[in-house]
């Protein structure tokens, strides 16, 4: 299984632009599944969730799945609060 891309602790409007640029630059295109290690996310707002949802949609258009590895409680709570928990289906387990 491919290694997970570690998400930063802060996924907010203040970091979404830089993270988007980093994800576009660094993420592999050919993998069948994109693993995101979400265990360190401590601060997330609607802009951070919107970025993850846009990434999931872009991956879906390329025939690629997106999987969150060990999502933090902050990410889970934010996704539930905004009603998008089903769109960000976590892949339980440790990042490799």
Q: Figure out the total of helices.
A: 3
Order of helices and strands: EEHEEHEHE
Number of strands: 6
The span between the termini is 8 Å
Strand order of the largest sheet: 1-3-5-6
Poorly predicted spans? 92-96
**Major sheet: size, sense and barrel closure?**
4 strands, parallel
Overall mean pLDDT stands at 83
Structural class: alpha/beta
Radius of gyration computed on alpha carbons: 12 Å
What tags apply to this protein structure?
alpha/beta, 6 strands
Describe it for me?
The structure is a single chain. This protein has 96 residues and is of the alpha/beta class. Helix content is 38%, strand content 19%. It has 3 helices and 6 strands. The strands form 2 sheets. Strands 1-3-5-6 form a 4-stranded parallel beta sheet. Strands 2-4 form a two-stranded parallel ribbon. β5 (65-69), α3 (73-81) and β6 (90-91) form a beta-alpha-beta unit. The radius of gyration is 12 Å and the shape is globular. Mean pLDDT is 83; it is low at 92-96.
Compile the SSE list and pairings.
Layout: E1 5-6, E2 10-11, H1 16-26, E3 33-37, E4 43-44, H2 46-61, E5 65-69, H3 73-81, E6 90-91
Parallel strand pairs: 1-3, 2-4, 3-5, 5-6
Give a quick precis of the structure.
This protein is an alpha/beta fold and 96 residues long. The chain has three helices and six strands.
């Amino acid at each position: 299984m491919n290694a997970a891309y570690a998400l930063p602790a802060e996924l907010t409007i203040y970091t979404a632009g830089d993270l988007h640029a980093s994800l576009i630059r660094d993420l592999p295109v050919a993998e069948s599944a994109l693993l995101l290690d979400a265990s360190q996310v401590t601060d997330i707002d609607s802009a951070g969730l919107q970025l993850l949802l846009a990434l999931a949609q872009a991956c879906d258009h390329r025939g690629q799945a997106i999987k969150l590895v060990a999502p933090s409680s902050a990410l889970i709570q934010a996704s539930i609060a905004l009603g998008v928990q089903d769109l960000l289906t976590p892949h339980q387990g440790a990042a490799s």
